[in-house]
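Narrative of accomplishments. A recurring question from our advisory board has been how the design workflow behaves on a single, concrete structure rather than in aggregate. To address it, we present the structure tokens for one chain from the evaluation set, followed by the sequence designed for it. No filtering or post-editing was applied between the two.
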């Protein structure tokens, strides 16, 4: 049997890898999807050890594979035996998508002994090159500058695919993607707006601060109390990144440590370098106090945040 383990933080990228594995096979396979959490391990073992009615080969994709690390020894022993069947030409793929500590499990380590291991992380996927190839293959033109803007609007391969589909449908006749098309048709991730808000705040660009703030309220319809919570989170993140940078870490190190894309790491490093630890800490303390005052009713949320931006 041909066994694979795929661990990922992007289901779309994992599905692409599964399609690549499938297309590399010379034989025809019946594709079967299993969810261990719903169907149980014994059901999977039965599927693997039962010969198909027409003797066809099986391509089995197991979702919710994290549940295997909690399974009892009896069904696991049968699973290992089925996986170790050298006479079988079936394909078995375990898909791990949840952010858990399963990799530390002895059961996961045992599973790896019988499998080809593939780890897919969004931060390691060159999204710009992926998008460029898709547009070129589909006959669309896009400049590098416009492509760079598009990448700031997505945070996963899944969201990039959706954005490409929307843009190609919108520009089906002209076959040329412009900056204005992206700004009109694609929704910008909330985190990016918050990072830009902080960037403007740190360099005292008050007009830009209030412009972004207005867009967040009117366009994104974000609650002010929620925005305050986001700002607290980002200033805490900035404080941590600032300390790490002083310790000699690079942008690549930050991206790996926080498990984020290079685009996200760029904003994190840029903002951390735009201020000193003392100011970052002072802003963080002011935001925490503001959050408490809003919740206790001492100040209205809009007024409180606007005064913070003006200080």
């Amino acid at each position: 049997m041909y066994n694979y383990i795929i661990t990922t933080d992007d289901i779309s990228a994992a599905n692409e890898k599964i399609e690549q594995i499938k297309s590399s096979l010379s034989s025809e396979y019946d594709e079967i999807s299993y969810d261990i959490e719903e169907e149980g391990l014994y059901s999977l073992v039965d599927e693997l050890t039962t010969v198909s009615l027409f003797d066809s080969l099986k391509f089995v994709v197991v979702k919710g594979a994290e549940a295997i690390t909690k399974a009892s020894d009896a069904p696991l022993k049968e699973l290992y035996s089925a996986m170790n069947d050298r006479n079988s030409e079936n394909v078995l793929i375990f898909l791990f998508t949840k952010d858990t500590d399963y990799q530390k499990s002895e059961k996961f380590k045992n599973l790896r002994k019988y499998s080809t291991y593939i780890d897919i992380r969004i931060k390691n996927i060159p999204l710009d090159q992926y998008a460029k190839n898709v547009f070129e293959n589909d006959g669309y033109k896009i400049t590098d500058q416009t492509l760079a803007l598009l990448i700031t609007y997505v945070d996963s391969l899944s969201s990039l695919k959706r954005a490409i589909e929307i843009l190609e449908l919108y520009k089906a006749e002209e076959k040329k993607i412009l900056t204005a098309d992206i700004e009109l048709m694609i929704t910008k991730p909330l985190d990016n707006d918050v990072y830009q808000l902080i960037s403007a705040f740190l360099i005292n660009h008050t007009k830009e601060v209030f412009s972004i703030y207005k867009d967040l309220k009117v366009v994104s319809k974000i609650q002010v109390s929620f925005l305050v919570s986001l700002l607290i989170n980002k200033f805490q993140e900035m404080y941590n990144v600032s300390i790490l940078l002083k310790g000699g870490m690079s942008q690549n190190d930050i991206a790996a440590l926080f498990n984020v894309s290079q685009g996200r790491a760029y904003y994190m490093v840029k903002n951390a370098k735009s201020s000193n630890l003392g100011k970052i800490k002072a802003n963080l303390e002011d935001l925490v106090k503001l959050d408490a005052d809003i919740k206790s009713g001492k100040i209205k949320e809009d007024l409180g945040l606007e005064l913070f931006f003006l200080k």
